[in-house]
Write a structure and sequence with these properties.
Elements: E1 7-8, H1 19-27, H2 39-52, E2 56-60, H3 63-74, E3 79-84, H4 88-91, H5 96-101, E4 104-108, H6 118-124, E5 134-141, H7 151-163, E6 167-172, H8 175-182, H9 185-191, H10 197-212, E7 217-221, E8 232-236, H11 238-250, H12 259-271, H13 276-289, E9 296-298, E10 305-310, H14 312-315, H15 318-327, E11 330-331, E12 333-334, E13 337-341, H16 348-363
Parallel strand pairs: 1-11, 3-4, 3-5, 5-6, 6-7
Antiparallel strand pairs: 2-8, 7-8, 9-10, 10-13, 12-13
Helix pairs in contact: 1-12, 2-12, 3-11, 8-10, 13-16
The structure holds pyridoxal-5'-phosphate (PLP).
Length: 364
């Protein structure tokens, strides 16, 4: 990396397709997915469904549309879904489920670790009574702001939902980041000499599936850390996906030679899962590099997102800090809470440049 190259830490959505990914796109056989005859789309849908243990999957342009199709397939007019205050499917999607589906969200506050407390979920499930919307769905997000939801929690929350007759949806935009962070170290050690990239990938996929097994539907983004330019998939039962397919059409998400994009997503599943561990290691490197700066609190990253809180005295300088980083070719997001996200197009040299620039700013 040359000194002048931009280090873009704003989001893991900024990745450019690699040369190998572009080649896979160029070589993809194409049809018309609205007729259901695009072989590359069909292959991707089968691949992700099988990987996560579902009957079927639907390729959609965005994670937002994926969550919308999911909520509107699980819920009807006058139903409600329980969701986190900070969840993308509540806070960051323009209220789509309410706007397009007349589905009411029931947002709950997150605990410090990102979970929705079980007691709060229980208390939010409404009895069958004309006063209330019908509680139909529990929607969790994992990772949430880069935090891994503990597996035991996911199991307990989804068991409760199931026992109470609710559907369970996972916004797993970063499910594979969660799976990488969740693989038990003793399993990796257990591989011993067999610890090849593909053996480690198999462990991560098994972990992703263990998480996915707790849900009736799962949405995964290919355009985040997996490094594809566009696209998400919604997974579920055949019957659920048939409903979601209708909603995707209504939402304008029927795409034609979409195999061009599906091929990129498929390439990402084949080649970019295990390397998410590199992004997590770089996030730790960034956090470690920033430890001990007066006025900064660095939240220890669990995956690929580092949040930095500025102390009151430093808050006034946050815009100045971002501008100073920007001038040095380092992009980050946020204001009082700065966010740095590692990904495919960031390397150790880039992280070290960011660390040096931030340290330099606070020395000045
Ligand atoms: C990015 C993201 C989405 C939405 O993805 P878009 O493709 O930007 O619509 C949904 N959920 C989570 C958790 C995300 O991070």
């Amino acid at each position: 990396m040359t000194a002048s190259k931009t280090v873009d830490l704003r989001s893991d959505t900024v990745t450019q397709p690699t040369a190998a990914m572009r080649a896979a796109m160029a070589a993809a056989p194409l049809g018309d997915d609205v007729f259901g005859t695009d072989p590359s789309v069909n292959a991707l849908q089968e691949k992700i469904a099988a990987m996560l243990g579902f009957e079927a999957a639907l390729f959609v342009p965005t994670g937002t549309q994926s969550n919308l199709c999911a909520i509107l397939s699980h819920c009807g007019r006058g139903d409600e879904y329980i969701v986190g205050q900070q969840a993308h499917a509540y806070r960051w999607e323009g209220g789509g489920a309410a706007v397009f589906g007349s589905v009411q969200p029931q947002p709950l506050d997150h605990a410090e670790d990102g979970t929705l407390p079980i007691a709060a979920i229980k208390a939010a499930i409404k009895p069958d009574d004309a006063h209330f919307a019908r509680t139909r769905l529990l929607a969790l997000e994992n990772t949430l702001g880069g935090k891994l939801l503990p597996f035991d929690y996911v199991q307990a929350a989804t068991d409760l939902a199931k026992a109470r007759g609710l559907q369970r949806h996972l916004d797993g935009a970063r499910l594979f980041n969660a799976a990488v962070a969740s693989v038990r170290p003793e399993l990796v050690e257990g591989l011993g000499a067999a610890s090849t990239g593909s053996a480690r990938t198999a462990l991560v996929i098994a972990e992703a599936r263990r998480i996915a097994d707790c849900f009736d539907s799962v949405s995964v983004c290919f355009s985040k850390g997996l490094g594809a330019p566009i696209g998400s998939a919604l997974c579920g039962s055949r019957e659920f996906i048939a409903r979601a397919h209708r909603i995707r059409k209504m939402a304008g998400g029927g795409m034609r030679q979409a195999g061009l994009l599906a091929a990129a997503a498929s390439h990402a599943l084949d080649h970019h899962i295990e390397r998410l561990a590199d992004d997590h290691a770089l996030a730790k490197r960034l956090a470690a590099g920033l430890a001990g700066i007066d006025g900064l609190t660095v939240e220890a990253p669990q995956t690929n997102i580092v949040f930095i809180d500025l102390a009151d005295a430093a808050k006034a300088r946050s815009a100045e800090l971002l501008a100073s980083l920007n001038a040095q070719g380092i992009l980050a997001a946020g204001l009082y809470r700065l966010r740095f996200v590692t990904h495919l197009d960031v390397d150790a040299a880039g992280v070290d440049r960011a660390v040096a620039a931030i340290r330099g700013f606070f020395k000045a």
